[in-house]
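Dear Dr. H.,

I hope your travels went smoothly. While you were away I took the liberty of generating a structure for the chain from your last submission, since the lab meeting agenda had it listed for discussion. I wanted you to have the full record in hand beforehand rather than looking at slides cold. The sequence, exactly as received, is reproduced here:
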Amino acid sequence: MMKRALYIVLLAIGIYSCSPKGFNDIIPETSRVEYDNVDFDMNAMSLHGDIQPFNQEIRVDTLGEGRYLINLTLYTDFPSSLPKFELHYNYPQKLIHTLWNSRTWSTLSEITQANYARLQSDYSIVSVLDHKSQNRATFTMHDQFESRFSQIDIRRVADSTVFVFNFFNDAAPDAEILEYNAQIIIDFSESNYSSCIRDLSQWRLDKEESRAITRVDASLLPVYSVWYPMDRNIPLENVTHYFDSISNMGFRSILFDDGWQNVVRFEVDKDGTWDPSEITIVKDFIQRSKEANMKVSLWYTHPFIGAHNYVFQRFDGKYLQYRTSSQPVLDIRYPEVREYLTEMYSSIVEEWDVDGIWFDFLNGYYPNEHLIVTDDTGRDFVSVRKALDSLRIYMGGELLDRKPDLSVNQSYRPVGPLHTSNTRTVNGFLGTSVLNDVREKMVNNRLLYGEFSPFMEVMGIHPRDPAIDVAKKFHSVMYSNPYVSYFSYTLPQETYETLKFWISYWKSNVSFLVESDFKAYSPSERYPAIIAGNEMKQILTVYNRIEPFDLGFFDFEMADIINSSDYPYISFKGTPTGRVDYITYDHKGVYSDRGALRFRRDVAVIEIPRGGYARLIVK
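The corresponding predicted structure, in token form, is as follows:
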């Protein structure tokens, strides 16, 4: 956690309870704070909007070098509805090379100057980068409503870009309050922008403990997903027949994916109750999995059973819609619905004895929070999201009571496989044409949620995929938790060897790939270079032709340079203090060549097989 404020720059800027225009004063020049040529300019900040009957107080604290916390408080003497208002921060346009925003599950994380738009995101973070992917400024905010009614917009005025912290523009809480508190962080620190985003996102996550993943079982990773074969309606017996092959490949768990509903039928009774003990085919599948020393996680989408006739009759009128489906969904704002769903989940876990569970389709319900409830028939929540929070907490407790060692692998509200919408995710991605999209989503998840980000693009392998392409596909998800799906009995030998090597590589290097410092470069080019690791080992993956990558003084013992591009040569620069040897390997991990780096004007070039890597050893 960041340190508490070192000192107060500005306290109680003013109280303007009678002004219809609210606060829009210019802060004196004397309030400007400077750190290493980076200015936090109070003249650049202003508040706009009619905030009466509220008064306001603004305090700016220093969290560290170049990092500032703006504390905004509105308060009044009698309960009142919150007003629409904005806090602006003007930033010099000439300092902006690239803008990044937190649209996690999209390919729009980089914003071009011509496409400034409202950045609607559950986690509004915006970052200004220079041409070397160094942070210029990163912005985020949080309030007592977990930023559900606020967002960051971007506007262009004259020679400045205005970062607009927009409060209650589209909706406001259905409540009257005496005090409202919001915090905004502006980070001018000089470092790779990845670090700033990760720090500010963690600051938000620490304020929302209910969003944290309950637990992560490393023995479940990497995961073999039955999505691809099941989507082709292959019987479960055909999958279990090849457990030995899957185990030999290096997998220790199976994701019993959404396609299992093509085999299992929900036979509910007239009371709308479903007994999972009657589904013997699934119990047999899980039993055979465990006999093969494989753990099983279940991807579970039960809220959609609302379309079943008996369930529909039981909960008549208690339905929502989902943003990508016309199928009715049970309305979780009713306590009896939450109890029903929790019991269904819990009985699955207990009866089938699954090792892990993935919640799916737990976002995207509507109507939204601002809906005015009329003719209420027993809801205890107006807000769908608050009801969802309650469902998660209640369900999580019940699941862990039934099975204390259960791995609950998805709880973050904005993250997860929106499996019903192929326009938002690349489900079971095949070929290499989508690798830029997959890599961008993986990086964005990693930046926002760190080592526990439940990245869920399933890597599908077709028997005709060239082995080098298989290696490159694995590289696109390598800095996260890989999920792979394929027909194990149709893999060509070269493809089998390639996949097996990279799974082994991931398992051997997971502490460097996932649990160490992570930096991504050039979002405007879809992250052509990613590096992670520590002083012992660095792993750099190059996905496209780039300028020589700067390894500085080679302050590590070893580094792997992975060539996931279409070019055979990788160049980098630096000034090592001693000799640096290298060994190259092809896409199957087979030895190719060795030698010593030769620098010319601080730049060295290595020929690395496509899909393969070079290991640098610092003497």
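Two observations you may find useful: The chain has a mean pLDDT of 78. The chain is about 20% helix and 30% strand.

With kind regards,
E. W.
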